[in-house]
Amino acid sequence: MPEIALINPPSPFLLDDKVFPPLGLLSISSYLKKYWHHPEVIDLAGGRGVGSIDADIVGIGATTPQYPEALKILYKLRMTGLEALYVIGGPHATCNPNTCLDFDVSVIGEGEQAMLHIAKDHPSDFPSRFTYQPFIENIDEIPFPDREAIDIHSYQYFIDDEPATAMITSRGCPYACGFCTSIWGRKVRMHSADYVINEIKEVQRLGFAGLMFFDDIFILDKHRLFKICEHLKNEHMVWRCFVRANLVSDEILRVIAESGCREIGIGVESGSQRILDVVNKGTTVQQNVNTIELAHKHKIRAKTFIIVGLPSESKETIAETERFLEKTKPDDLDVTIYQPFKDTPITNNPEKYDIHLSKIDPRYSFFKGIPGQYHSQVSTSGLSAEEIVAARDRIERKFKWWK
Predict the structure, then answer these.
(1) Is 378 within 8 Å of 356 (Cβ atoms)?
(2) Comparison of pLDDT for 132 and 226, the residue scoring more
(3) What's the first-to-final CA gap in the chain, in angstroms?
(4) DSSP-derived pairing of the beta strands 189-190 and 170-171
(5) Taking 80 as the threshold, does the pLDDT of residue 125 lie above it?
(6) What is the pTM of this model?
(7) Before 21, cis peptide (omega within 30)?
């Protein structure tokens, strides 16, 4: 069998890239091990150098802002004389495969079956430059992420002072926000409640008492949610998740609060209803207000996610967002600049929107970065790129409750 190395590049654009582990690569590792391969996961988060590698296949997973780091790793390994099949995967390769021609193969879509196919056929049948495998319909077939393949406890994340880590229990989002590209598509595939409960037990075995559920919308299936919550309630764990305001109810927030949920993240995006409608968000400002109020009623912290620079952004819509934040007083917020990802309704049809897109520079294609280092690649008729950055920074200074 070929020797396989899976590499997680660093993320120097983040304040700290040792918070959440690379679950995508860890899932590929566990899937390969299911079929008797023995990959090595090389985690470069935190600034570790790549060092020397002996492998027949080198797979690197990267988001768009990580891609320059992935290229550095590729060039360094080739300079060492390592003759391997170099594979790039992750969100950047899926959305921008034609920018990845320095690699031998770009994986488009999910990586588990694609990497298994590459490993199985190596070296007699090299895959084409682009490889795509159909989605795994029953994702319960995928083993738990291979958390013991890296130093999982070097990732420092806490919820109410309890050591916590991340889980992803579903793939996909049924909504079609104009600014979003979903590498998993609009069909949602969920792990069963029993699978999730067993993975929670595995996480507990590793010493974690807190969980961050990184599903796009953890509350999408209420029956599944309540079954998971019943288990969590008995385990006395603390946790966070992402919700969607149009799906929130008093009952849901009561149940998740009783099971240990300490915080919800809400994709508010803007305090302007006009902008929410323009980007097809499918929520209302009032629903967002109600969600924060219900969270506070049930003693759950509410963290809002704001995007500055969406189509038709203006001084007036920025003021509406500030008034929304002043009124609702969320416990925390992330405020970022709209990044025009490839193959979204906005980037495919910019003429239909009040937006001007600059040439995309991957160095600045991050949705979350370091304060003072944001760069806008968009402008509107109401705001220049520089004014968008200034508005983002002002909102963060005014409303971010630094811990």
Answers:
(1) yes
(2) 226
(3) 49
(4) antiparallel
(5) no
(6) 0.92
(7) no
